[in-house]
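fyi for ur records
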Amino acid sequence: MAEQNPSSCNSNCSSCSSGCPSKSAGIQKLPLAPGSSVKKVIGIVSGKGGVGKSTVCSLLASAMNKAGYHVGILDADITGPSIPKAFGLAHDGVALSSDGKSMVPEKSAGGVEIISTNLLLENETDPVIWRGSMIANAVKQFWQEVEWKDIDYLFVDMPPGTGDVPLTVFQSMPVAGIVIVTSPQDLVSMIVQKAVRMAEKMNIPILGIIENMSYLQCPHCEEKISVFGESHIEELAEKEGLELLAKLPIEPGNAAYMDAGAVEAIDTSKTLGHAVEVLKGILEE
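which gave:
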């Protein structure tokens, strides 16, 4: 029996004749809220924290939105959400749909639709002190109980590591593929391989890898300075059979944009051009 391509999964295992690992293992993809539609779910993952995964997720979502696609972000980093801040969104009470049964995501100035725990908290600095099962349930609710209207790409910003949340996302949503975010340190390269192995075990396609904070370019002589050591991302990508989507430099000005909630003002046409083309390609599959 032919395997179902995860990128063409419609989340309805009961009517599917394929023999994919999810179905044979008894894993049921969760349905969306009534009236919702998501064409491609893209997971943004990292093996460890501190590599700028949420920043890369925000930049990718903004880039795809500027390319003319309807984009959403499901902030699955439940206990450490930073996506709303990057897009200048604050808690003002998430609205409900007309039937009162689902939440309506907040919309950024540029039109990116976002759901995050920080949009639901009374105070954005309040900690979310939940056990793993509650965090996993919140992620499922953000998929099932949010009105995702005609979304071309839904980016899922996951917490670092290979724990509860990535497992919940991979099992509950029809993930078309993941983008792995890393930085130049050798330690991170080792951790990346853990994320790769998890994706392989879960039968999730890896769209490619992005190295963040790859270098700092001198504004005077344009020399590239390897702040975190020499990059070996090309060797790692070749070893793992991964496509290198981008090497993002350290841009002090970008940090200021992020802090001001203006991530959409950052020009990514040169740095993320290849990544955008790769993502465009999977929509046509």
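The longest strand covers residues 38-45. thats all i got for now
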